[in-house]
Write a structure and sequence with these properties.
The complex is a heterodimer of chains A (534) and B (106). Chain A is α+β, with helices and mostly antiparallel strands. Chain A contains 18 helices and eleven strands. In chain A, the strands form three sheets. In chain A, strands 6-8-9-11-10 form a five-stranded mixed sheet. A four-stranded antiparallel sheet of chain A has the order 2-3-1-4, sandwiched between helices. In chain A, strand 10 and strand 11 form a beta hairpin. In chain A, helix 1 runs antiparallel to helix 4 and helix 2 packs antiparallel against helix 3. Chain B is an alpha/beta fold and 106 residues long. In chain B, helix 1 packs parallel to helix 2. Classes of the chains: A alpha+beta (534), B alpha/beta (106).
């Protein structure tokens, strides 16, 4: 594979992994029962995008897996299947599986990208779901055929009227002509139209007059032109958001009259499709380049300092002018430094987003009911700091779920809601960023902590300690009460390591607890972190 | 005297009608010889469909129409019917409102 393609492949890996994060977040919001169409559409879009990109790079195992996954998603979207706990688990396992497959594309040996067992399980669950609904589907299929485009014009008004009752519905006329490379790059109008149909009532008309004879047809080129009539309450942005992905196509999106106005469409209203304006244009930059930029700024600061010293040793008009210039340069450098630091800032939500899945899996494994509440996701932190606090946060949240939140029957017996709550919050306070992890669990057991500390010889039997001093003992190295140490990803990280990591960032950890009410751990980080190991 | 009727051509589609299987599908359609006025297509086994595959089937249907032959379906999977309708190709393929078709789940 050549270097240029390697670069694109790197982008594929990064973007796919990010997309999978979004997919996982959406899956965790997917309620059981009939699939929520908005959420399922998001999941479908992600699956489809990865499939297309994987197909383009020749990662057929991934493309095939995504295709199978799309089949299941399609069943859910059409409500031929329901979201059950089993389906939900399968979808989340699929995210894990695809993550591994995507990550493996960057490794030399690709032979281990064989279709996974999970793919067969998905096929099986779809087949089982289909069998259960075959009888109903047969009559539905006939009914759907009866409502095909050939009869669609006479049904349109009734359909639109029905849609109108659900909100401010408008009709859109969309013309779509795919360029030849659309299929070659692994994209396909079919799932895109499924998504459009998810927005409302869709009538499709295809012009097949340009399709050559079978013998002359290049299957990888589309010769069909489409025109769609879409009745929906969705915005132009929502429609364009779906169509935008078919970048290799000629599109026009024309808003026809609102349903309420039974006037003829105004031909002059037609506009060529313009991608929706984005509030903020972003580019992807390797962090190494930002570090280079930061280093370059550091060099400028050094040179500025050297020139300033030289200027102080000279007198005269020219030296005065130099000092004035250097003073201005000093202000400019500060601005530049701050700007570069700002570029490195990322919302803490990018870190918090990994926790819903973790809490879900952990609480299910432990037989607990735990709700995770996240707030302050937009609070920004330096990227490096964000990376460094990941493991400490994992440890703290695991502690809350594992040791803080009680089993449902114990909570009920204590007069609590059987569902425990773990909260993650981030906010800025002055020149510091606070990250707070709290739970409404059992809290720390002071007597047990004292007993453990005395047993280890950390304190004398007659030592008099304040509550806070006792609680702070969990930060001591080697403090391993059964209640307060767990392994984090099998690495045996303790609370002492949590505190050490935070101190290395120039921050501190404060713990407060109330027996029976819960524990709150507050991490305080400086807004401008000191130098840290990269 | 017994009249020997011309044999009807039967085309049985495989499970995959996608770009990945396009070469095989195109070969199958090109090698379908028909001496009668009707081609019978069995799409009951189809469980993978995309636009490229359906476009090939439409090209085949148009070829038959130009030769004065009609296309009939002995079976069509639900996915095939649904996908062709979604792309607005069900009418030209003869899958729209045809209650004679045995619609099967793939």
């Amino acid at each position: 594979m050549n270097t240029e393609l390697d670069q694109f492949q790197d982008v594929f890996i990064v973007e796919s992994l990010e997309a999978l994060d979004a997919m996982e977040a959406a899956l965790l919001r997917l309620p059981q029962g009939n699939a929520n169409s908005d959420i399922i559409n998001i999941i479908f879009r992600v699956a489809h995008s990865i499939k297309g990109a994987a197909g383009m790079f020749g990662f057929t195992a991934i493309a095939s897996f995504m295709h199978t996954l799309e089949t299941l998603l399609d069943e859910l979207r059409a409500e031929r299947m329901q979201v059950s706990a089993q389906v939900s688990d399968l979808l989340l396992q699929s995210v894990d599986q695809i993550r591994m497959m995507v990550a493996a594309t960057g490794k030399p040996a690709r032979q281990h990208l064989a279709p996974p067992v999970l793919q067969d399980q998905i096929r099986q669950i779809v087949a089982d779901g289909s069998r259960q609904t075959t009888a109903g589907q047969h009559s539905k299929a006939v009914a759907r055929r009866e409502a095909s485009p050939s009869d669609s014009s006479r049904n349109l008004q009734a359909t639109l009227a029905a849609a109108m009752s659900q909100g401010a519905v408008c009709r859109w006329r969309i013309r779509f002509t795919a360029y030849s490379v659309l299929l070659q790059r692994g994209d396909d109008p079919l799932p895109m139209l499924d998504e459009l149909a998810g927005l409302g009532e869709l009538i499709v008309s295809a012009d097949c007059s340009q399709i050559p004879a079978v013998a002359a047809l290049d299957p990888a080129q589309i010769h069909i032109q489409w025109e769609f009539l879409l009745a929906t309450s969705a915005s132009r942005e929502a429609i364009c958001g779906i169509l935008e992905r078919a970048g290799d196509a000629e599109l026009s999106v024309e808003k026809m009259e609102a349903i309420e106005q039974a006037t003829a469409p105004d031909a002059s209203a037609e506009v060529m499709y313009v991608p929706p304006a984005r509030s903020e244009v972003t580019i992807r930059v390797a962090t190494g380049k930002l570090d280079e930029l930061l280093n370059a700024v550091g060099e400028i600061v050094s040179t500025h300092s050297m020139l300033s010293k030289w200027a102080t040793r000279h007198a005269g008009a020219q030296a005065d002018q130099l000092r004035t210039g250097l003073s201005q340069l000093d202000a400019n450098i500060r601005e530049l430094q701050e700007a570069v630091m700002r570029v490195r800032m990322l919302p803490v939500g990018s870190l918090f987003s990994r926790f819903p899945r973790m809490v879900r899996d952990l609480s299910r494994r432990l037989g607990k009911q735990v709700r995770l509440q996240i707030s302050g996701e937009q609070t920004e932190l330096d990227k490096l700091v964000l990376e460094k606090i990941g493991d400490p946060l994992v440890h703290l949240v695991r502690n809350s779920v594992d040791h803080g939140i009680e089993l449902p029957d114990i909570r009920l017996a204590a007069g609590k809601n059987p569902e425990g709550t773990v909260r993650m919050n981030a906010f800025r306070q002055g020149d510091a960023i606070n990250i707070v992890i709290s739970d409404d669990g059992r809290g720390l057991d002071k007597s047990r902590l004292l007993e453990e500390a005395q047993g280890k010889g950390l304190i004398d039997a007659d030592a008099v300690l304040t509550d806070q001093q006792v609680y702070n003992m969990i930060f001591l190295p080697g403090f391993t009460t059964a209640n307060w140490t767990t392994d984090v990803s099998g690495r045996g990280v303790g609370m002492d390591v949590v505190q050490q990591n935070i101190k290395e960032l120039g921050g501190s950890v404060v713990l407060s607890t109330e027996p029976g009410k819960g524990t709150t751990t507050t991490i305080v980080l400086p807004l401008q972190p000191g130098p840290v190991d990269k | 005297m017994k009249h020997k009727t011309a044999p009807r051509a039967h085309v049985t589609l495989e499970a995959g009608c996608t770009l990945h299987e396009a070469i095989e599908l195109q070969f199958l359609l090109l090698t379908t010889k028909c001496a009668s006025d009707t081609v019978i297509v069995d799409g009951a086994l189809v469980e993978r469909v995309d636009t490229a595959g359906l476009q090939l089937l439409v090209a085949f249907a148009l070829d038959q129409a130009r030769a004065g032959r009609s296309l009939r379906w002995s079976g069509a999977s639900d996915l095939l019917v649904r996908s062709s309708r979604r792309l607005g190709l069900d009418t030209v393929l003869g899958l729209a409102g045809n209650t004679d078709i045995q619609v099967l789940q793939p």
